[in-house]
Amino acid sequence: MAKNQSVSSKKLTKERVMSDSQFDRTRENMQEFDNAAQACTQLRDALKELIKNASAGKTLPGRLLKQMMEVLKSDPIGDRGERQVAKGDLSLLKGFEFNTMSRLENIFFPVYSVTADRGSGKLTVKVQPFIPVKKVSATKSASHVRIVTAVVELDLVNNTRIVTEAQSDYILLGKTEIAIPDIENQFTANTKQALLMVLCIEFYQDVNGKKYILKDEKHNPLNVIHAESAVA
Hints:
It is a single chain. By secondary structure, the protein is an alpha+beta fold. It has one domain. It has helices spanning 2-9, 14-19, 24-46, 48-53, 60-73, 104-107, 132-135; strands at residues 112-117, 122-127, 144-155, 160-167, 171-172, 183-186, 194-207, 210-214, 222-228. The protein starts with a helix and ends with a strand.
């Protein structure tokens, strides 16, 4: 009986994990994991329509969580188990591909730049003139391409967000060099919150003047082109 009681007392239970000093490190890992997972959920919810159009696939949650953990680990002040995404370097998300089967650099070749101005509340994408048929790797049957951008203003402490989208006109996949207007996203002027911008390439087929989106997991990239942490 004493032997059975001894075995029973050592049984691994949730209560034991949450209270036994032997599992201090486990609890610390759990707390940081939860913080990173919460940030991932917030970001995915903010971009859910673009993610859906990009056919991001089943690997996205795990890949995004892995990268978000890197952001959390960059927190320079938190004790072990207390580090937070909100205090880490969000720029580590720059370049993240939501769809690994369609990388932005393999689909969209024009030179572009991103400018952020917190004072005026603007994130701007400037694309250099390009010849669409040469500088865009289009999906089959596409007649037009559109550049879509979204800015997410993230309050990672209170789990709130503001999302704004902007897009180019429909661009004919032709042989003539074109210049497109700057794509400008507004956000709250003088915001202190974290900022993240994604760029998505969408392809369309024109049928009698109406544009139909073409969803192709190999030609619908969605990429983080700008990310910066909250400011004090």
